Amino acid sequence: MGKCEMQSQFLCSIIKAEECCKSLDALELDIIKQLAEFSEQIQQQLKQEADKKLEEERQRQLAEEEKQRQEKEASEAKAKQQQAEAAKAEPAQVQAAPEPKSQDVPPAADPTASTCVHPDRLKFYNDIISLYQSKVDAVKPLQTEESLKQYRTGCQRAINLPLNAISAVSPQHLGQNFDKLYSFFAGQPVKVMNGSTITINDHPLARDYCMLLMAKKFVSQSETAISSNPQAAFPFASVIITFWKLLPDFGKIFLAYMYKESPFLVPYVIPQQQGQTPEQYLKTIGYRLSDKNELEKPDIYLKRQTGVVRLYAAVIITQGRKAAGPDECFELNEGWLWLAHMVRVKPIPDISATMIMEMLQTLGFELWRSYGKQFMKLLVYIQNIYMPQLAAHDEGGPKTRLEMLLAKFLRERQIPQAIGVLPPGFW
């Protein structure tokens, strides 16, 4: 009898287990259905927004054309009136009035432009590059003057030594190296190798020259330290943000160097121009030439791009020094905008998947905490809509790793915080 009771209890347990499995299956189907509905809603919303923007652009172009037509008619009428008056005053010397200068007509909209870069991001990119180029042109006398070579070397030493030592080993260590850099920009004297001292005030162009030099040096850390060690991005990012608050032009110059290394950070998929060789085009998207004038290998290029996007993402979520003030200069919404625009531009094999994955791994925790369901919808859109588009161009390892990462995030409904993020008020 005891054995029969045990068998009966065992059978009851099996039946309950089967019922639980059926309930889990039904729950899974319901979740899949909800995700599909989310995806469809997002797609419809994006289509409506795109249609609205197209209609607004069409109305704007019509208004611009009407304005140009009216201006042209007014110019022609004025020219005819001037001709008539001249003919009455000097009938023997009648000459045809000069053709009025036509208004500059903007080029027709490129139907593929929206797949390369959003107009707002393109304007932001052009403004940043324009400021950078103006600074570069301005410091050429200092950069090329042979008699100032020793001074330039001293400036480089004053920046490189503390910048290379930046790390999060302790708040005191990070603060000391920042202080060395900032005191130089504040005009404090710095010793050079021959025992003499220099200051940034010794030449009127030195401040802009050193700002360019420091921004370039920070970006170069993405190639060396950060591409191999993601955690190294955060102490550099904290110092960058602190300088950005204190010297606003520095932040823009830093972005210019970042965009020159990787226009995908805009995000801007620069199209290949007619007559441009493959080598010339690859250089426009960040590929480098070796000393032997050979194009670098794709795996080396991809590693550099990984370091660049890690530093960019770290700057977005890292706070600066408390004493520098509370103002935020590059907030979390920059990461949200980047993801939203990145999934709308033309996918590029390997690089698109790599950059999205690095952004999600670095920013995902903060984006999920701040945007909640909207961020979930964006992840579903990337998985269901963007990934099939990417698969048409890319079957490499980065795409597969991004697929696995998205599936893990959506399955577990959580994203871990990136390792190495500095706590608020670290220094």
TrEMBL record:
Keywords: Coiled coil, Cytoplasm, mRNA transport, Nuclear pore complex, Nucleus, Protein transport, Translocation, Transport. The keyword Coiled coil applies. One of its GO terms (cellular component) is cytoplasm. Pfam families: GLE1. Residues 48-79 have a biased composition (Basic and acidic residues). Residues 80-100 have a biased composition (Low complexity). One of its GO terms (biological process) is poly(A)+ mRNA export from nucleus. Required for the export of mRNAs containing poly(A) tails from the nucleus into the cytoplasm. May be involved in the terminal step of the mRNA transport through the nuclear pore complex (NPC). Belongs to the GLE1 family. PANTHER family: GLE-1-RELATED (PTHR12960), MRNA EXPORT FACTOR GLE1 (PTHR12960:SF0). This is mRNA export factor GLE1. The lineage of its organism: Eukaryota, Metazoa, Ecdysozoa, Arthropoda, Hexapoda.
